[in-house]
Input
Amino acid sequence: MHLRVAAYAVVIDSERILLSRLRETRARWTLPGGGIDPGEHPADAAVREVREETGYDVELDELLGIDSIVIAGPDLDEPADDDLQGLRIVYRAHVVGGTLQDEADGSTDAAAWIDLADLPTTATVELVDAALAMLVVPRA
Output
């Protein structure tokens, strides 16, 4: 089994969430983020990836949590013999600069603010729901 560790940011402005569209045949929307470079701190990776995929500079507010997923090799976008475990480190962040723009020649091909009310009918990866669940604070 292969292991991929990545960092992502949940950026919500009013009733909208910042998402990136994956450059793949299924063209689903995901949180801006991605793989951590060797020696890179996860927080730095999240900030870098948001900038690369959306054009925005962000400041991290807090670590929301870590999510894990296992994908069978044949089910990967590029089918493989080995399964993949993805560890996804998720931060909450806010925009401090930059301008919305699509990533050129990367793993995503579009960036957009999506109304939270439209998420149920938007093609997203399960990470979006997992990250939003991390934002919900249980009531006492």
User: Anything to note?
Assistant: The chain is about 15% helix and 45% strand. The CA atoms of residues 73 and 83 lie 4 Å apart. The chain has one domain: 2-135.
